[in-house]
Design a protein that fits this description.
It is built from 2 helices and 8 strands, in the order ααββββββββ. With 130 residues, it is of the alpha+beta class. The strands form 4 sheets. The chain has a two-stranded antiparallel sheet. The termini are far apart. It holds the Pfam family TSP_1. This is EGF-like domain-containing protein.
């Protein structure tokens, strides 16, 4: 039996076929190389915003009553970057001209409730004393 197998292998070698390599022969595919990944971005340090100085106060929204307000503002001089923050307020509001009524008027949200004989938003119009 050994002689038969050796004879077959010898004949196949003579023909040009390698019986051992033909059992394991596979077609190789070339792998396409993918481009290298882009380099990582440079490290970034958080930078907070910067703000300018406050504006002057606006005029009061009401001359009298209970709801007068005025505001002042400021602007960013540079924006935040790389995850920085802007912890500063850009607008401030305060009360003004509250509780001010003339001639004994009573403050309310629209101005003043005037006593009999007086009128106007802040009770400034009315009887003159003689």
């Amino acid at each position: 039996m050994k002689i038969i197998i050796l004879t077959i292998c010898f004949l196949l070698l003579c023909i040009g076929i390698n019986p051992i390599s033909s059992l394991f022969w596979r077609r190789r595919r070339r792998r396409r190389r993918s481009p290298p990944p882009p380099p990582p971005p440079p490290p970034c340090n958080p930078v907070n915003c910067q703000v300018g100085s406050w504006s002057i106060w606006s005029s009061c929204s009401h001359r009298c009553g209970t709801s007068g307000t005025q505001t002042r503002t400021r602007r960013k001089t540079s924006s935040e970057e790389c995850g920085g923050e802007c912890p500063y307020s850009l607008k401030v509001t305060q009360a003004c001209n509250r509780g001010i009524c003339q001639n004994g008027g009573t403050p309310n949200s629209g101005g003043c409730s005037c006593r009999l004989g007086y009128g106007g938003t802040c009770c400034e119009k009315g009887e003159s004393t003689s």
